[in-house]
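Posting for a labmate who doesn't have an account.
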Amino acid sequence: MVSPYRRVAKAVDEGVKNPPDKALELVRLRRIIKLVSKSGKILYIALGTTGDYLLIPRLFCTCKDFELNVVIRRTKGTCYHLIALELALRSNSFRELRVDDETLNDIMYEVLFSGKSVTLRKKMLSIT
């Protein structure tokens, strides 16, 4: 059986052609965040209204829709967060935040284990 991850990049490309309204809204509101650490590590986050999601371009998202419908059920090729990330990258419509490595790790762990990053949201207040 073919891994569901092999289909994600193609599904993202297809999704960009006719993006869902939710993806367009994420880009319009600039809720895609590119975190760059001092050592050069890059992390992408989608800031949601109820949670935050770690994104790996054209490959992976930590949202439940991706987990359930892309990976487990295989009823979808991707989620709207990854389509929004691709749109944001292509149009340079994301917010970039430079942080130290420890802060980047804190944000990543908060998103993965709490579903939302308080640290990121505090940092965002300082640049908006």
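Reply:
Got it, the structure tokens are right above this. The mean pLDDT is 95.
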